[in-house]
Amino acid sequence: MKNYIIVLVTVFSILQVHAVSVRAQEIRLHVVEANSSESIPFATIAVEYCDTIIGSMTDTEGAYSFTPRSLPLNLKVSGFGMEESSMSISTIPDSLVTVKLQPGSIELQEVAVIGRLINQTNSGISYNMVANRRAQSENTLQSLSYVPLVNVDADGSISVQGSSSYSLYLNGRPYEMAQTSPKVFLESLPASSIKKVEVITHPDNRFGADSQRYILNIVLKQPMLEGYVVNLSAEGNTQPTANGSLMGMIKKNKVDASINYTYNLNGQRHQPTDITYTEKDEKGDITHIWRNEGKGNGDWHTHTVRAMLKWEIDSLNTLYADAHGQILQTNITDSNIQSEMFPIAETPETFIRNLSKYTSGAAEANLIYRNYFNNDSETERITAGYHYTYNPDRRHQTQNRQSGESNSLKYIQRTDGGLNAHTGLFSYLLRPSLYHSIRFTASDMYRQGKTESNYYYENDLDEPGSSMRYTNNIAALNIAYAGWLGKIYCSASLKCNYDHFSMRLPLSPSLNYKRDRLYFLPSASIFWRPDNYNALYLDYSTSLNRPGINMLNPFESSNNDHSVNRGNPNLKAQYNHDIALTWYMTKIRNLTLAASVQYTHSSDVILSDYYTKNEKMVYTFSNFGNADQTDVSVNIGYEPTNWIKLTMDGSIGKRWLRGESSNLRQNDLVYSITPRVDFYLPNHFRIGGKFGYYKNMPNPWSSRSALTLYSFYVSKSFLSGRLNVSVTANSPFSKYNHSKTVTTLPAMVTEQNNYMTARSFGINLSYSFGGGQKVKIERDRTLDSTDQNTGVK
């Protein structure tokens, strides 16, 4: 802790470093037609800085004013039927700047009058919310459905380019409360207060040390003032599932505070399942066939509590603190009949009843300081912080069995433990010139895991169990560059990780080991835009996937006589190389296209593994050799009219998996397609539907069937978007979603069928109210781990 105090003292001393600033003075433009000198309303404006492009438009009088972020800058202006005009500005003009446009081509006319006013930037796409008249009487959550590359489902979940991994920013700064609970908060913010929404697909240095792949940056017309907001929401359907939340936020002077509680229930009732085990001898002849049939009931409870506090010390310095807790409780009861089908079909059946109770989740806290540039209040200059996370791992299972007339004692399997993680981070952005920037980031993460496991019969002494202790210290230094080289925007980084891992198994000391390894994680990106409507990105990156405590824990669990689940304490980190080529196109009116080709090479791949022992199939995890995967993905959004939106996310890929030690050679084809349609009707009615066809990646030695999901919804908002009601029908013509998995080993083949409840009907209610002006609050997840999924989402 002493070291972190020294770092924070150093941070405040660095604040005195002098930074060149641009005078807080506006540049005023007036766009006119060259021959008649008449004003050109709604002309497209593109302000190009060294590291980004900001798009906007003139008002009805052809006027536009802005305060420059840095100088020099390039200005590009185009309008209805007009050729583009460009100019370079190196100093603040003393008077109004008049921009004269010459008549141009039909093509420019189409772009200028496009209803959605979609502009491409160096880091993604910008959508002008002011030009959408319908959105002015809706809330922010509803209005995000108009934004290209963004989908908002009826339950309020948001995806960007088909991915749920994104950060939400407000006026260029982190705004992740909306990401963690989008439906709860975004419904309380009116879309009429939004100027534009930027979909940032390739974040650069100005977004600090954020780890998410995509960023949604909501730019407001004016700063938010003091006030409070309270949001109540409830949802339920017949699956059964239920959701409820209560959130309150308040802003007083320069302090923002927020507290939120959310409860989620996801249940399954009488879910049928069956699994057949076929054992073979060395010659491949069948020796035994067993079958398990049963039904299960499950309840997955999630309790989430969040508290956040932010203090804006001044316009350039902020201090942020939070505490989050998320408890996941799983209660599963299943009853099944175990029988031998071959060679002795008359063997008495065994009735088995299992009761499983699992507790997982996270408790975490953050303390983060941020400093921004004097002449660019959206770009982080200094970030320093501390992050703590605790992840419990409690798995308790009891089993009762009856065979013929005999009853056996209750068999108890239990493990208790958890993972503590401490992270410290310091980041600094250096700008050698207006066109180049370098970010230095240093961090250290210390993880410590501990578990105790026991297996015993009721009223009997404990049988020998297992225990695990491990420590993992990760020291990292990252240097990231971003800048312009001619007309090409380039970024590159090199991250060095020193990874110390120590594993101790007190009951099996001969298996203890230590592992020290130095990882180099380079990345690079090249951006080129041949015109205003097309953009190409070429990205290369490397990453690590480390095993979680549940994978490492050697705890064993079994729910029948022929299967055992256990962890593998010898797992190593998986190393990945990714290269992707992505194309964004907005040339066709009302259509946005994103297409990419990606290749991934992974070594020490962490996947589920299987082997047979004593007539049992043992399920575990292993490091396989190498995996190569190629994926092609497409995201299309199209609005043929202003009351209908069509979108489609699709991908197809193939993986070549090679395990040298296991002599594994497996080629798998995966694909997914999700078309959807949304109708925006008068009086704030919406109806829509979504269809999904998915073929997920199977495990080694296995094959997996495809799944089909579809849903329909009707929604309506009242009171200017403060009250929202939606009704959803999920797969109304299908009782179950059938999933089939076949695993083939030389000594045993298993065929498992799961039937998950598909048909359900639900209703969702949400209401927001407040006093004063709307307020802002953000959750900062800069220090979250990216190599393990251990935090509160």
Which secondary structure elements does this structure contain, and how are they paired or packed?
Blueprint (H helix, E strand, L loop, with lengths): L1 H13 L12 E7 L10 E5 L4 E5 L5 E4 L6 E6 L6 E5 L7 E5 L4 H7 L5 E4 L2 E5 L11 H4 L6 E3 L5 E3 L5 E5 L2 E2 L2 H4 L1 H5 L7 E7 L13 E7 L6 E11 L3 E12 L2 E26 L5 E27 L4 E26 L7 E24 L2 E28 L2 E2 L3 E23 L2 E22 L5 E23 L2 E17 L8 E19 L2 E12 L3 H4 L3 E5 L2 E4 L7 E12 L5 E13 L2 E8 L2 E8 L2 E16 L2 E16 L4 E18 L3 E11 L6 E3 L2 E12 L4 E8 L5 E9 L3 E10 L2 E13 L21
Parallel strand pairs: 1-7, 12-15, 31-35
Antiparallel strand pairs: 1-4, 2-3, 2-5, 5-6, 8-9, 9-14, 10-11, 12-13, 14-15, 16-17, 16-45, 17-18, 18-19, 18-44, 19-20, 20-21, 21-22, 22-23, 22-24, 24-25, 25-26, 26-27, 27-28, 28-29, 29-32, 30-31, 32-33, 33-36, 34-35, 36-37, 37-38, 38-39, 39-41, 40-43, 41-42, 42-45, 43-44
Short key terms for the protein model shown above:
globular; 6 helices; disordered N terminus; about 800 residues; 22-stranded antiparallel barrel; mainly beta; single chain; 6-stranded mixed β-sheet
Q: How would you portray this structure in words?
A:
It contains six helices and 45 strands.
What is this structure, in a nutshell?
The protein is mostly beta strands.
For the report, how would you describe the main beta sheet?
22 strands, antiparallel, barrel
Oligomer: single chain
In percent terms, what proportion of residues is strand? over 45%
Radius of gyration over all CA atoms, rounded: 29 Å
Helix/strand-derived category reads: mainly beta
Based on DSSP secondary structure assignment, what is the total number of beta strands? 45
- The CA-CA distance between the termini, in Å, is 26 Å
Helical amount: under 10%
The unreliable regions are 1-24, 105-116, 772-778
Name the average pLDDT.
Answer: 83
- Tally of DSSP helical segments: 6
Q: Estimate the global geometry from the Cα principal axes.
A: globular
